[in-house]
Amino acid sequence: MKNSNSAEQQSKPFSGVERNNMEIIIALFAAYILGSIPTSYIMGKLIKGIDIRDFGSGNVGATNALRILGTKVGVFTLIIDIGK
After folding, report:
1. Is the pLDDT of residue 2 over 60?
2. Which pTM was predicted?
3. Do 75 and 63 fall within a single domain?
4. CA 84, CA 78: separation in Å to the nearest integer?
């Protein structure tokens, strides 16, 4: 006797393993895009109107944001970067 549940799964697009693979691909793409957002650069432009790459070490990281933009903005940037 054939399992009707497996027949239903086969007829649905993106079911079972294919759906899991598609979800993984979408999650990886979203993580790549989210991780490429330069938080320190955006904070520098919004808070002080400067390009943070022109100051300090020239790096667009939380440490340079801490040094150039101040403690509050630096810690906020670090938290956002960790969350990404």
Report:
1. no
2. 0.69
3. yes
4. 10
